[in-house]
Target: Large ribosomal subunit protein bL9c
Amino acid sequence: MKECCMVTSNLNNANNFVEVNWGIFKLSYPIRKEVTWNLNPNLMGYLQFGRHGVKQIIRFRDASYDNVVVNPLLYASQGLRYKRKLQVILTTDIDKLGKAGDTVKVAPGYFRNHLMPKLLAFPNIDKFAYLLNEQRKIYQPTEEENQEDVTLVKESKEDMMKEYEKAALRLDKAKLVLRRLINVQKAKSRESKEDPLELRYPVTKDILVAEVARQLCVNVAPDNLHLPSPLSTLGEYEVPLRLPRSIPLPEGKVNWSLKVKIRSK
Model:
């Protein structure tokens, strides 16, 4: 077997094709100029590498060609790859992609794994586009619907004011009862029995807010209670309430107040 073979063809060839037969391999390709290749028998073995055969051919120094742009063996050992995009219609607004109803191009994997399972988009097909247009016509808001929304908002504000008024009346009529430990040492050192008993731990705003929520089921903020100093003795108190002026006061009342009674355990 020869180490290499020389193939030469001119433009005068009727078919303008040149063929190379080597064992079970047969290559044919068109020519435009006088072409000369020096093919080594080992070069055919590189076809088994598939797309990596390109690297093997480049490393093979004995293969030389003249007046040819690309060696035909390169196409025999690799395939064409291209990025295919898919046109989809978005159902919701997506950052850096588009708004609802826009037709955009995305990768098939991104649509299959992310957009389609979450119903964020569907393929750009005539039937899907028709359904989207019909849904827009059906669910398009009208002026009557907008007016109904405005009336509902007004009614909700009135309901909120009624709830505030009920809560204020409940606070004003109810009495908050607390049981606390007294300071035994100070109780023994009192000058007279008429002196009030001091508490071991004073009652602060936060304690009153928590007890109001537990006993009266009304949520108030510490700012709604006017308590300059904590309650430190047993007895009954009236704690002024700071409520919005829009809440009407009952007849004969100047301000809102909360009755608190502190008893010993």
In short: The radius of gyration is 46 Å. Confidence is low (pLDDT under 50) at residues 1-14, 31-41, 61-70.
